[in-house]
Write a structure and sequence with these properties.
There is one protein chain. The protein is of the alpha/beta class. The protein has a six-stranded mixed beta sheet with strand order 4-3-5-9-11-14, covered by helices on one side. Strands 6-7-8 form a three-stranded antiparallel beta sheet. A three-stranded antiparallel beta sheet has the order 10-12-13. α1 packs across α14, α5 crosses α6 and α13 runs parallel beside α16. The two termini are 47 Å apart.
Length: 490
Amino acid sequence: MSFQGQNWISSSFDNGRENFRRKLLTIDSQLGEKEVEQLKFLCQDFISHKKLERSSSALDVFDHLMAKELLSDQDPFLLAELLYTMQQPLLLKHLNYTKEQVKSLLPTLRKVSLFRNLLYELSESFDSENLKDMSFLVKESLPKIQLTSLGFLGHLEKQALIDADNVVLLEDLCSSVTPNLLRKIEEYKREKEAEQRQLQANKVAAFKGCVPVVEEANRGLKEEIFSGSDIEQFRQALPEEAVYRMDRKYRGHCVVINNQNFPSLRERKGTQKDADCLKHVFQWLGFFVQTHVDVTKPELEELLKMYQSHPGHAEGDCFVFCVLTHGKYGAVYSSDEALIPIREILSHFTAQQCPGLANKPKLFFIQACQGEEIQSPVFIEADAVNSESKQTPPQDSIPVEADFLLGLATVPGYVSFRHTTEGSWYIQSLCNYLKDWVPRHQDILSILTAVNDDVSRRGGTKKQMPQPAFTLRKKVIFPVPQEELLVSFH
């Protein structure tokens, strides 16, 4: 690896990890002995009892989670979920989450089991008298030491007196001592039953190639956004295996490259509006979104290598890569003004180079000119650099193998327009149609067709025509996100 590449690793990738560890250190400083016990209890399904027993601080727990690749600077959601469960909303800001965001993402990204959550909620509801009375009822099963409520429930679990499929003892104890808590156990049983039904439905959907049923929490029950009749209509209308799976553990990663400043090229004013919209929309769709600003060629090369080998792809449904920059035929500019072929970017994610994304949709959206610069009116700029006579068809920019989609802001040979405060025509239209049409169960190619029509109607005498090129074998239909997130866009 070149010296320049090594500098990038230390200055970007390692710096990202170092900054994340600083955030963890800050969070650790705000957690007392009680909170560390809560954290260890909630992580019992992820970390061995022996390691947890030796953990004396939250930092020890964080280290174990990172060692198992359950926590990272790119995917901090598990810790956000833990802090949310522990009722530590003020600490969420260190992970760039709010209480509302975590709540809305839990139905699709939850990692802590329903059973673990039940035990935690029960422990928080026990007072000292409740604990004393319950301990008396099962005295023969307890060690001769004073236990906290979490320790009490943890010991019952360790003795195999309770587990996710057997809560009879919990029901008996609550019935005798705290009858008002029986509703929590009943709610858990309903949610567990609904979860099992959902898992079975997903297996059937995956087998038949149907659009999976999407559910949302509602007073402990779950309602189908797609009804049984809707699923049947989709199944009859589409051939077998016609829809890509969207029911794995994660939706996937979305990378946004936002190049605004260049040594000699014009500043791309308004691009931050595009980056913000892409981040909000793809987070709404369930993706982990990472934005990288003013990325040089060496930095881009290391980013591509990092995401090419990212372990999170294995359990994800999809991958999205967005580039906002200047460009010319079949290529885009890095922030240090190196011209990067689009094909070179996409080639990192073929099935051979990136096995974790094999047979999964890989979506690339490029906001950059693909041709000669045009003099534009005030507030309208072109993302072109120099005139060229040669044109490269978009099909020549994508790998020949399956499952790729390349969305270009403009057809080869022409400019794409960007408002200096409101963002680009293409990205703004793409975000708007994703927000409006995903809830209608429209596939991505139908959405891009609508984007083509919308963008082509703009501009008066200044016209732009986007163009998708693809080797998709099935339809890409994103599950309908939670309505609470949809409201945040309006």
